[in-house]
Every structure is written in structure tokens, then in C-alpha cells.
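Exercise 7. Given the encoded structure of a 77-residue chain, write a plausible sequence.
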């Protein structure tokens, strides 16, 4: 899953040229949060959102194109 997220993020920033990527994750979804953390994202806000299982606390994660490209460059070196 982490490899797929990395490929999609690379496409988001370097093909589509979007400046920021934001994703929401239920706080209870620890595995998904770990993937965001490992990819260099950080939490920018907390709120509650409705999910199939009900209303849950939610983290909003973000990374900028600049942060991503610096991280990717270090990974290659």
C-alpha cells in the first residue's frame, strides 16, 4: 500500500502539478496514518466527519510539492 501511495503522490505533484496534497483519515485508522507519516505528511487539523461506521474524530494530513520533492530527492541520494 505504501508503494501505491508513493506513486500516486509522485503523479499528483510532478505530473498534475498540484501544489498541496491533503487527505483525511479517521483517527482510529492507525495503519493509514502511519503511511502518511512515513511519506512525510503532517497533521494540519482535527475535526469530526461522518463515516459508514458513524461520526468519528478525523485527522487532516498535508504535504506540499516542495516538501515532497525534497524528501524524494533525499531518498534517491
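Solution.
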Amino acid at each position: 500500500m505504501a508503494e501505491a501511495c508513493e506513486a500516486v503522490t509522485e503523479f499528483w505533484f510532478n505530473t498534475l502539478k498540484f501544489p498541496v496534497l491533503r487527505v483525511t483519515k479517521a483517527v482510529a485508522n492507525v495503519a493509514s496514518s502511519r503511511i502518511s507519516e512515513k511519506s512525510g505528511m503532517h497533521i494540519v487539523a482535527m475535526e469530526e466527519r461522518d463515516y459508514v461506521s458513524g461520526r468519528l474524530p478525523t485527522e487532516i494530513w498535508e504535504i506540499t510539492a516542495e516538501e515532497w520533492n525534497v524528501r524524494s530527492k533525499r531518498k534517491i541520494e
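Remark. The first helix runs from residue 2 to 14. Students should compare their own answers with the one above.
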